[in-house]
Design a protein that fits this description.
By secondary structure, the protein is an alpha/beta fold. The chain has 6 helices and 10 strands, in the order E-E-E-H-E-E-E-H-H-H-E-H-E-H-E-E. Strands 6-7-8-3-9-10 form a 6-stranded mixed beta sheet, with helices on both faces. The structure holds adenosine-5'-triphosphate. One of its GO terms (molecular function) is ATP hydrolysis activity. Keywords: ATP-binding, Cell inner membrane, Cell membrane, Membrane, Nucleotide-binding, Translocase, Transport.
Length: 217
């Protein structure tokens, strides 16, 4: 269980703005997907940054399976985040960008290479193995980033509008990959405004308003 209890955060601001103080309090079970909606500026990236460890809360607790995540740096939290920007390595070909999810030292075993190949076919990128990210379309880069994140097999997945702008077939393939991760026990937090994505994946929905998560029925 991911337990986020009274996680308080505020940006240091000198100008009188409209940024609220954030107060997050929710639970997310293994295998469950919680969707988060909210207008621009509501704090969705702030929430993801706090969970992933890029922002430090003023107080509160964040625990996964009895482990205190706040005591750990981002890279030790076992959390994979797919942001809107694709975060690919420009100088590495597609297959190696994906392979980094399985072997961070880039030394892929034969079996790992097979899984990369299989994954690329599943998301409709067969034939593009050796391309560089700059030689792909935006949607293709998105698929590479998502596939890498999903192959990593993290138990906590943070997805920030990962399916926007993709055609239906590709999106269905990626939904299937996320469902597989859920079935394997991953807890998924999905930031999305897309009704189809939410209906396809979310078990519970909430909305971010005035710095808090409110349930949506
Ligand atoms: N570094 C910062 N310093 C001060 N205020 C910030 C900072 N980053 C974000 N904010 C403010 O915090 C609020 C939440 O921003 P955040 O980026 O989390 O929103 P969001 O819901 O992800 O928006 P979007 O959908 O546009 O990406 C906004 O009012 C924003 O102006």
């Amino acid at each position: 269980m991911l337990e986020c209890r009274d996680l308080i955060f505020h940006y240091d601001r000198h100008d009188p703005g409209e940024t609220p103080d954030f107060h997050f309090d929710f639970r997310l079970a293994p295998g469950e997907c919680l969707s988060v909606e909210g207008p621009s500026g509501a704090g969705k990236s702030t929430l993801l940054g706090l969970l992933a460890g890029f922002l430090e809360p003023a107080s509160g607790t964040l625990v996964w399976q009895h482990q205190d995540l706040l005591a750990l740096p981002p890279w030790e939290r076992g959390i994979t985040t797919v942001f809107q920007e694709h975060n690919l390595f420009d100088q590495l070909p597609v297959w190696l960008n994906v392979g980094l999810g399985l072997a961070p030292d880039m030394r892929l075993s034969r079996e790992q290479r097979y899984r990369v190949r299989e994954g690329l076919a599943e998301v409709g990128l067969e034939g593009l193995h050796d391309r560089l990210p700059a030689e792909l379309s935006g949607g293709q880069r998105q698929r590479v980033a998502l596939l890498r994140a999903l192959l990593r097999g993290s138990k906590i997945l943070l997805l920030d509008e990962p399916f926007s702008g993709l055609d239906e077939t590709t999106r269905d393939g990626l939904w299937a990959l996320v469902r597989r991760q859920k079935a394997a026990g991953a807890a998924v937090l999905l930031v999305s405004h897309d009704r189809d994505d939410i209906e396809a994946l979310a078990d519970r929905r909430c909305r971010l308003q005035a710095g808090r998560l409110l349930p949506v029925s």
